[in-house]
Design goal:
single chain; alpha/beta; D-Maltodextrin-Binding Protein, domain 2; 2 domains; nine-stranded mixed sheet; two-stranded parallel sheet; 11 strands; 21% strand; disordered N terminus
Length: 281
Amino acid sequence: MLSFFKKVLLTSALIVSLSGVSFANQSIVIKGSTTVLPVAQGTLEAYMKSNPGVQMSLSGGGSGEGIKALLDKTTDIASSSREIKKEEIALAQKKGIKPVAHVVAFDAIIPVVHPKNKVSNLSIDQLSQIYQGKITNWKELGGEDLKIVVISRDSSSGTFESWDHFVMKKAKVTPRAQMLASNGALVTAVSKNKYAIAYLGIGYINKSVKPLQVNGITASMQTATSKEYPFSRELYMYTNGEPQGQIAKYIAFVKSPEGQKIVAKEGFVPLVEVNKPGKKK
């Protein structure tokens, strides 16, 4: 599994290519979601190893930025942690773009706090009240008398959009919230602040933060797949029309048993049950 620090680096921008190799019509550009980034990175590295004539580049920036790049024809694949919006589809049609969705993994959005926080379970309503700024102290939730520091993803993030769908229901996030640009940045912020709360994709959970139950349900590969966990979602790669050539082969690889083992290794939920490989030493 990618180290925590490597994931943090990935959330800004990551360019991966074969040095000194350039083959016409054998390049793939991937842009978009920082949540999907570890899955894209792991599968990209494995695919290039098996296909040394292919040059690939990968960058984050958020689901919205990835879809915008697809519509602007500056990427071959847009990775996204949310479905494409109706207005994005309408704009795509005007530009002659035909977005096609490819589900590559499942995910669960998990609220997290500092490991020393005594709170272990919150309801959806309590999370909404926290993020609206209506609940402001952990003692209101059975915790210590500490002011809650609210941390959120920025509005270009698909995870932010999903949080709005699952939790906020179009209610506004408090203006006091810290809006950060990546999952990795949220992990760092919460791990260093015992007052904080944030939310992460399941693949970013590590020992530096404490995941919370939601409505008494623990997020896991099983509860995410069954949708028993209330904040479960699909992760996507979008292409302009049905993919062809190396793009089609790469997406097929991501969905293959080998690719899905990489999904599981990165801490996300594979499309089908696979034997999860051990962590790299």
